[in-house]
What does this fold into?
Amino acid sequence: MCGIIPDVPHITRSHRQPVLIEEYLPGREFTVGIVGNGAETRVIGTIEVVMNEHETQPIYSYEVKEQWQRFVTYTTPPAGELRAAVEQLALNCYCTLE
It folds into this structure.
């Protein structure tokens, strides 16, 4: 990610707003919906973003989100250890940032 640092001023000027730059992490992509605050915080749903097999760049980018029908399938992971771990991690992160 260090290679992008010189481009940050140009990126913020061209978008005329703050930008978020994240390092790409390979692996499965999950989205966890969370509502509430404090003791009322809870998970309301979890989906997995599965890139279509024919995609050559498996990055869940803005373009992919805008044209999701072409690029991805959304699935609900089955109940079990993996989903429980993903949801607990998301709750922990949410509560830490709250």
Notes: The helical segments are 8-15, 62-66, 68-71, 81-97. Residues 17 and 98 are 24 Å apart (CA to CA). The chain has a mean pLDDT of 87.
